[in-house]
Design brief:
single chain; alpha/beta; TIM Barrel; 4 domains; 8-stranded parallel barrel; globular
């Protein structure tokens, strides 16, 4: 039972099999994808045939396919979830990402188990317990700092996975119930209504309005580009990109960006190696700022920062490119140094501070002719570009090539020649060519021709790093014979690689059963079925409350627990200003009022509210 911390894995999202294949082509060592159901993204399901297609492609590069089966489950759903687990296992998937511990009581296939970020993995004790349960890879909470990550890494052998890019949930994952309370759509069931992206007013303890109509629970997007090496040194070995609902340009661009960064780190730190095979070349320069983001933050990795929120808008604003210099009847001019193109998307904030978007119908230098002139656009307005048509077009075409290095050796045999290919993983394949040995009339040309024909690996997975001709003299071998020999050797090497690929297996649970780190579980434990209840009871939990989704009357409870603190954001934290008390504040949206309570000891904010009466039904 051992994971290799010196193997670095770039883990990319796959909305579907085709996106997953492109993620692999752009350098992902692994991809995560939803199966037919229960994948924590209700709108990103895939068939078993899709999983099989993706796994076949991934395994050619020794890359892995992780299937998300990470919602909490009703009793009547457990059997279907178990059936899906076996189906994706037979289809070639490498691991299951799990939240509901009831599944561990169900006779799962012998495949690797990964603990979803929804299992709220932010303590040494929790991570160690999950490892003892047979989880070989654990997705850590996004809120952790480098010292906290280092402490967890020192206490476990499991592979530690960390989100390095993409959207941030404001709440600790698995500890957010506001969507279910207000709409009946549970985040733990893959149906989050994203209440955190809505605008609210904020009132202090005296009812004075501190902020109006702001997206106060909306975070900027995660970007750990500058912290990758520090994360490696702290013990992270799987670097996860968020985005199973994002478009293909995002997947290509962000995967390529992190591929280049991780390759650079491994070039400087030779003790580390990539988790899969092959090197990528790209037809474009990765630019993370070009695809969907709400601004960038490294969140709490380097301890608390004040600017983690995207309070102005939850939408993609884009890059600031200049200001409006002139407004005419059918066009406007932008004072900008960038080249604008037909089809570009622009955005700006209107007089009500709402983000407005428009598409360029025709661009003539700095002059913009939109499809429809926006009302109220004034000189001096800051303009952003949130769609760069040229960049998007470049990524709509084939934009990456991934090749596995091979060494070619042509040697003489008793009755002809043999070609041996040895790839970067040390896997070999040999093809034989019975052929008469006839001296070449032009020795130099014959040797050059041999190298040229043997090295033609253009439409294969492979690229020749060296070609060794071990012959006693230059022989005449027709190009057609060499080409056939090369093709046969390549086919044999592909087959040998396929035969050599080994899926990771499930780690065993420790015996006797390890005690769970707590003796009681509140609704925050997300226990939604009898199998989960039995699991926790077996591990020493004596009091087990039902999941919030069971819709039992609980009164006002924490609907969201978050490290983001609005007192801190508005410089009202007792640690910032002497004499300020951490009294409750209120979030207001229409008739909804949510109480904010501040746990200063843990440096956390609780968003407290009730279940709306009209949603007190099983959904």
């Amino acid at each position: 039972m051992h994971s290799s911390r010196n193997t670095l894995e770039l883990l990319a999202p796959a909305k579907n099999a085709d996106f997953g294949i492109e993620a692999i082509n752009h350098g992902a060592d692994a991809v995560y994808i939803g199966g037919p159901a229960f994948g924590a993204r209700a709108s990103a399901g895939n068939t078993v045939a899709d999983i099989e297609k993706l796994a076949a492609h991934a395994h050619r590069y020794n890359a892995r396919v992780l299937v998300a089966l990470n919602t909490i489950l009703k009793d009547e759903e457990l059997e279907e979830a178990r059936r899906i687990a076996w189906q994706v296992y037979k289809a070639g998937a490498d691991a299951l990402i799990v939240q509901d511990m009831g599944l561990l009581e169900m006779g799962l296939p012998p495949m690797a188990l990964h603990a979803s970020t929804q299992t709220d993995n932010r303590s040494v004790e929790k991570v160690r317990f999950l490892e003892q349960m047979g989880f070989s890879q654990i997705v850590l909470a996004r809120e952790l700092s480098l010292p906290q990550i280092r402490a967890i890494a020192g206490a476990t052998q499991a592979t530690l996975e960390f989100f390095v890019h993409g959207a941030l949930c404001v709440a600790y994952s698995g500890q957010c119930y506001i969507s279910h309370a207000h709409t009946g759509r549970s985040a733990n069931r893959g149906e989050c209504s994203q209440a955190c992206r809505l605008p609210y007013d904020l009132a202090d303890q005296d009812g004075q309005i501190v902020a109006r109509n702001s997206h106060l629970l909306s975070m900027k997007d995660n970007d750990q580009s500058a912290n990758l090496r520090a994360l490696v040194e702290a013990g992270i070995s799987s670097f996860k990109i968020e985005g199973r609902l994002k478009d293909l340009v995002y997947v290509k661009n962000i995967t390529a960006h992190y591929r280049q960064l991780l390759d650079g780190i491994m070039a400087e730190m030779p003790d580390y190696r990539p988790a899969s095979s092959g090197r990528c070349t790209f037809t474009f320069t990765p630019r993370p700022e070009k695809t969907f983001n709400r601004g960038a933050t490294d969140y709490f990795v380097n301890e608390r920062r004040i600017d983690v929120g995207a309070f102005d808008s939850p939408k993609f604003m884009g890059e600031a490119i200049g200001q409006v210099a002139r407004v005419a009847r059918d066009h406007f001019e932008v004072d900008t140094a960038v080249t604008l193109n037909n089809g570009d998307g622009l955005s700006y904030f209107d007089a009500d501070q709402e983000l407005v978007g428009l598409r360029i119908n025709r661009a003539e230098g700095r002059r913009v002719f939109p499809a429809e002139m926006p009302a109220g656009l004034a000189v001096g307005t800051q303009i952003y570009r949130n769609r760069d048509q040229e960049f998007e077009r470049a990524l709509e075409k084939k934009s990456a090539d991934r090749r596995i290095s091979v060494h070619l050796l042509l040697a003489e045999t008793e009755d002809g020649f043999a070609l041996t290919l040895t790839d970067e993983n040390g896997i070999c394949a040999t093809a034989a060519l019975p052929h008469a040995k006839e001296a070449a009339k032009n020795p130099d040309q014959a040797l050059a021709s041999m190298r040229d024909n043997l090295g033609k690996l253009g439409n294969t997975l492979f690229v020749a790093t060296s070609i060794d001709l071990r012959v006693s003299q230059p022989w005449f071998i027709p190009a057609s014979a060499l080409n056939a020999l090369r093709r046969e050797a390549v086919d044999k090497l592909e087959s040998a690689r396929q035969a050599a690929y080994q899926r990771p297996t499930r780690w065993p649970e420790v015996e006797p059963p390890a005690p769970y780190p707590a003796s009681e579980l509140t609704y925050l434990g997300n226990v939604y079925n009898e199998k989960a209840r039995a699991f926790y009871a077996r591990h020493g939990v004596s009091l087990i409350d039902e999941a919030y989704e069971a819709n039992q009357e609980k009164g006002a409870v924490s609907l969201m627990i978050t490290k983001h603190c609005l007192r801190y954001s508005f410089n009202l934290c007792p640690k910032q200003v002497k004499g300020v008390r951490p009294d409750p504040m209120t979030l207001i949206r229409g008739n909804d009022k949510l109480t904010l309570r501040f746990d200063c000891k843990r440096c956390e904010m609780h968003v407290v509210g009730k279940l709306r009466k009209n949603f007190r039904i099983h959904l």
